[in-house]
């Protein structure tokens, strides 16, 4: 493909790059007083990228026509599906931020710029078909995320979160980079197609270590056990809009990247990496379910919920089938809505001075003082627990169905049993809001933008969401099939 055609395929990335640089200059000249205007422009930029990507997802674009720059980048339907989720979640993180930071006058013009740069990195990650592109996208996203985690410079928890994320993120990047170097050493290429061809047949011990190190580095990015240790502290210490961002968009990017690397680059050695993913999935489900039970801070609880949900998503990867990959994408779409809605509700929980309310004990009796907010948060908790008829049940159902059809009945059974355990801490939130004596702490009001986003999330995960199952399943099937066509 010629250079002009390649530029056309990376149009969303070009828009994100140019917009980020222009807005950075505006931030430098206009200062923090322009932060809201920059945030609004950033939302429009993400919207433009969303509508640029949507047609190729619906059309199921794949094959040589989707490949740019001699195999370094692909703009296929699989990447497009992930980008739609990334842009939507990133936009939500931009919308909920200003009112949160305004209380302490800590809203900086650099916030939306960092968010856009992180979105650019994630967009490169999900389209990467070469280890070099993968690493550039991953590091661009990570560097912006480190700064975002420590965005509240006067808050010790935020500074601690940023430092922990940076140190452990650097360790994970080193592990991933070592795995990539081993992969290049044993296959002679960084291109996914060439790596796949080189790993056909019997695998050497060195190549096996390459696969292990690459998967370990990516497991950190999705906060899967045993590389989850950073998640509770970073989720708790980061500003809540940043935590909402971490729990949604980067999660989609990392899971999509893991899918492409496993099913494309290492696709001929599925038996080698399947055992690793199987262990990680089960460990994440169990640790996420048990770790959340004793948490007193709702953001830490959501961190363990994130770990738990990653385990369920990885069940689809264990199958190594098109149905499993499609189920992962459906689960991701529903998970984004549930998690974004949960964190929007958490952002809206403020005391009379506008300070965030994060302790579970402080939301006792919320149903009496803020009945609509409590009802929306309860819906999110029930949906995350996978309780029908809310849409979160469908995400778990399609993943378990794919596992059963691939003869992983025991894995599905363990997942279902762990879902019952995990339901305990979600129902605990509902019990505190509806049946405990009122703590009368949550008194602050929220603006219309928060209510609008919360309403959209609540409608999507409500029983009305089942009206979308045919369309969502069809689009996910096209995206998953595209991934396997590339890998074929």
From TrEMBL:
Q: Name one Pfam family in it.
A: Proton_antipo_M
Q: Which UniProt keywords apply?
A: Cell membrane, Membrane, NAD, Oxidoreductase, Quinone, Translocase, Transmembrane, Transmembrane helix, Transport, Ubiquinone
**What is this protein's function?**
NDH-1 shuttles electrons from NADH, via FMN and iron-sulfur (Fe-S) centers, to quinones in the respiratory chain. The immediate electron acceptor for the enzyme in this species is believed to be ubiquinone. Couples the redox reaction to proton translocation (for every two electrons transferred, four hydrogen ions are translocated across the cytoplasmic membrane), and thus conserves the redox energy in a proton gradient.
Q: What cellular component GO annotations does this protein have?
A: endomembrane system; plasma membrane
Task: Indicate where this protein resides in the cell.
Answer: Cell membrane; Endomembrane system; Membrane
Principal cellular location given in the protein's record: membrane
Database matches in NCBIfam families: NDH_I_N (TIGR01770), PRK05777.1-3 (NF004440)
Keyword Translocase among record annotations: yes
- The EC number of this protein is 7.1.1.-
Residue intervals passing through the bilayer: 6-30, 37-57, 77-97, 109-128, 165-187, 207-230, 275-294, 301-322, 328-349, 372-394, 406-427, 448-468
Q: Does the keyword Ribonucleoprotein apply?
A: no
Source taxonomy: Bacteria, Pseudomonadati, Pseudomonadota, Alphaproteobacteria, Sphingomonadales
Q: Which residues form the NADH:quinone oxidoreductase/Mrp antiporter transmembrane domain?
A: 128-422
Give the enzyme class.
translocase
Quaternary context: NDH-1 is composed of 14 different subunits. Subunits NuoA, H, J, K, L, M, N constitute the membrane sector of the complex.
A molecular function (GO) term: NADH dehydrogenase (ubiquinone) activity
Q: Organism source for this protein?
A: Altericroceibacterium spongiae
Family indicated by similarity: Belongs to the complex I subunit 2 family.
Membrane topology per record: Multi-pass membrane protein
Reaction(s) the record says it catalyses: a quinone + NADH + 5 H(+)(in) = a quinol + NAD(+) + 4 H(+)(out)
Q: Which GO terms describe its biological process?
A: ATP synthesis coupled electron transport
Q: Write the protein's name.
A: NADH-quinone oxidoreductase subunit N
**InterPro entries, per this entry?**
NADH-Q_OxRdtase_suN/2, ND/Mrp_TM
């Amino acid at each position: 493909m010629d250079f002009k055609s390649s530029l056309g395929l990376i149009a969303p990335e070009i828009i994100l790059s140019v917009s980020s640089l222009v807005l950075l200059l505006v931030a430098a000249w206009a200062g923090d007083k322009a932060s809201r205007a920059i945030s609004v422009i950033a939302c429009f930029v993400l919207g433009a990228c969303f509508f640029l990507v949507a047609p190729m997802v619906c059309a199921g674009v794949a094959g040589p026509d989707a490949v740019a720059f001699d195999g370094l980048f692909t703009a296929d339907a699989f990447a497009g599906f992930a980008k739609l989720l990334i842009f939507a979640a990133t936009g939500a993180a931009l919308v909920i931020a200003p009112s949160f930071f305004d209380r302490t006058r800590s809203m900086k013009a650099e916030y939306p710029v960092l968010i856009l740069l992180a979105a650019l990195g994630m967009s490169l990650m999900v389209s990467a078909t070469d280890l070099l592109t993968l690493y550039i996208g991953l590091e661009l996203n990570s560097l912006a995320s480190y700064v975002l985690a420590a965005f509240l410079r006067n808050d010790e928890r935020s500074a601690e979160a940023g430092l922990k994320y940076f140190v452990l993120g650097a360790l994970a990047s080193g592990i991933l980079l070592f795995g990539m170097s081993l992969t290049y050493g044993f296959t002679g290429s960084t291109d996914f197609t060439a790596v796949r061809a080189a790993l056909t047949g019997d695998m050497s011990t060195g190549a096996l270590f390459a696969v292990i190190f690459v998967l370990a580095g990516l497991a950190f990015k999705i906060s899967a056990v045993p590389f989850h240790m950073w998640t509770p502290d970073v989720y708790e210490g980061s500003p809540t809009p940043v935590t909402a961002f971490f729990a949604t968009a980067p999660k989609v990017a990392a899971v999509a990247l893991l899918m492409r690397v496993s099913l494309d680059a290492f696709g001929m050695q599925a038996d080698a990496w399947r055992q690793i993913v199987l262990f990680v999935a089960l460990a994440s489900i169990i640790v996420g379910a048990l770790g959340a039970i004793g948490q007193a801070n709702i953001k830490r609880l959501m961190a363990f919920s994130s770990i738990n949900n990653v385990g369920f998503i990885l069940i689809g990867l264990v199958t190594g089938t098109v149905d499993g990959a499609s189920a992962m994408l459906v689960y991701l779409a529903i998970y984004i809505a549930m998690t974004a809605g949960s964190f929007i509700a958490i952002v809206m929980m403020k005391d009379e001075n506008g300070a965030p309310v994060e302790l579970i004990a402080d939301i006792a009796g919320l149903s009496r003082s803020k009945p609509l907010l409590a009802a929306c948060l309860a819906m999110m908790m029930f949906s995350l627990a996978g309780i029908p008829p809310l849409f979160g049940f469908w995400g778990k159902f399609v993943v378990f169905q794919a596992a059963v059809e691939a003869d992983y009945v025991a894995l599905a059974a363990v997942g279902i049993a762990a879902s019952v355990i995990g339901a305990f801490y979600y129902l605990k939130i509902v019990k505190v809001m509806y049946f405990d004596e009122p703590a009368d702490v949550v008194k602050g009001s929220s603006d219309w933008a928060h209510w609008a986003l919360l309403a959209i999330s609540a409608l999507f995960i409500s029983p009305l969401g089942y009206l979308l199952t045919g369309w969502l399943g069809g689009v996910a099937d096209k995206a998953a099939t595209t991934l396997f066509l590339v890998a074929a």
